[in-house]
Amino acid sequence: MISLTRLSGAELVLNSDLIERVDKTPDTVITLTTGAKYVVSESLRAVVAAIRLHRAEVIALSEMVGVGPDADEAVHPDDDTRQRPLASVTAHPAAAVAGADVGEEG
């Protein structure tokens, strides 16, 4: 889930896996696979950066999930005898700047 801001200033949280398209018209319009549309105050590039950060967090946290001797048996990290460091993800410094060119070429 990514946290965004409606034009009214209200906070909005979206499931980034359902985002089909992000348009700049000049407002940023997010279209979901369900057909729902949301207009947000963040720039197109900021939305893309938020999606990338969310997906990086999911991948990093997946390291905390182990698989037991049987492929169908999940092992809780506390039950695992191996010590794994907690993965962490931080935003790219350019993502902190509003409207920064994060990962897009002009």
TrEMBL record:
Keywords carried by this UniProt record: Cell projection, Cilium, Flagellum
Entry keyword Acetylation: no
Basic and acidic residues composition bias: residue spans: 73-83
InterPro entries membership: SwrD-like
Positions of the UniProt region annotated as Disordered: 70-92
Keyword Hydrolase part of the UniProt annotation: no
Pfam family membership, one: FlbD
Protein name from the UniProt record: Flagellar FlbD family protein
Lineage: Bacteria, Bacillati, Actinomycetota, Actinomycetes, Propionibacteriales
